[in-house]
Amino acid sequence: MSLAASMRGFPEWLPDGQLVEQSVLASLRSTFELHGFGPLDTRAVETLEALTGKGETDKEIYVLRRLQASPDEADLGLGLHFDLTVPFARYVRENAGRLAFPFRRYQIQKCWRGERPQEGRYREFLQADIDVVDRGSLPAHLEWEVPLVAAEALGRLHLPPVRVQVNNRKIVQGFFEGLGYTGEMAAALRALDKFAKIGPDGVAAELEAAGVAPRQVGACLRLGAVSSTDLSFVDEVRAIGVSGGLLDEGLAELSAVMEAGRAVEPGLFVADLRITRGLDYYTGTVYETLMEGYESLGSVCSGGRYDDLVGAAGEPYPGVGISIGVSRILGPLLSRGGLRASRLVPSCVLVAVADEEHRPDSEAVAAGLRRRLVPTEVSPTSAKYGKQIRYAERRGIPFVWFPGGGDRPDQVRDIRSGEQLEADASSWLPPEEDRLVTVAAAP
Q: How far apart are CA 272 and CA 269, in angstroms?
């Protein structure tokens, strides 16, 4: 098991899981930086006004209060952030005069959300976000560049294949407007977004509760059933018989995203017209990503375009971003053995200790190996060599070093094969594939 028993919803991986997580984070950072995204870290708390202003999130927010606050002390009005987009928007607002636009950032941090713990869903979790915000207008190509970067990042993690479901909220909003719907648009969009969770009957009930006329619900369900890996979705939507300028605009924008995705990897992007995302700050293209064999988790990588979230000094700052649910992905993969570290510890070499009097000799060998960036530890005891070898085996350390003495040269043993050779601590190097811990999918 890679998850230690603990308070529900607050995962603490065992050492092998921690190594997998750190390898995943390093890979994500590397991919993001290859595409020009710079790092950002923001505070854990935001004002409740900011956190509750854009969607159905108020019941999920952890509110901060002082344990020793007096009954008449004013409420702090602060909560832990439930995602990284709202903090990012606040950061851009406050620093707009000092940032170079378009501003590209990645952010890997913990988030907190008070939902019911279950596989892949936690109350404390890691997310890895990338966003691009520009001043005034946002180049259209970013709406497919961002999900392609995320897909590339996921593809380097030895995960099962993913597919990115894409839609455009203008299509859905324009469709409702074309039907003549005059109710609360956010409620209607959220109802359609629940297709996968509650099915068509549940969606129909929620649409009617949102004020959609019963005679129009069937058309909405037909829209939600549209899905394709090519541009055939356009004809399918047209065939429903609803029209409008905003609908046309959304279809054109989604077509451009789909064409760009097909040019990189056919089938990676799937036009799915039921996807709208529950947060109200999205205004255009939206994304949800499913992992093959783990569809029950729901989306493991989501996001979209937002036009009105930043709004600094009256000037528009549109953006587009996507968030990878690191904890959501790792939890099931670790518990089911889907991802494994090559060993339990970073150490590549264990330097044996002949006796405590000669421990400094072993420490000198370790120092020489570390200078050449070989992760090395010295045996904690000077027990018989057989016990020191078994210690290395239990931890998955591939090499044991035996310091010489007098005329006897040092020797290093590959404990997997049993091969033992003379070695010089000032020049010996392990095979590159053994030097650092690697992570791979389980066979």
A: 9
Q: H or E stretch including 46?
A: strand 45-47
Tens of pLDDT along 241-253?
A: 999 999 999 999 9
Spatial contact of 113 and 158, defined as CB atoms under 8 Å apart: no
CA 89 to centroid of chain Cα atoms: 18
Question: What is residue 350's three-state secondary structure?
Answer: strand
Whose tokens are 């995705």? That residue is: 261
Q: What is the C-alpha to C-alpha distance for residues 123 and 54, in angstroms, rounded to an integer?
A: 20
| The model's pTM | 0.90
Which sign does the torsion angle of CA 369, 373, 375, 381 carry? positive
- Buried b or exposed e, range 397-436, using 16+ CB within 10 angstroms: bbbbbbbeeeeeebebbebeeeeeeebebeebebeeebbb
Q: Compute CA distances 403 → 22, 373, 393, whole Å.
A: 32, 19, 19
pLDDT tens figures, 99-118: 999 999 999 999 999 888 88
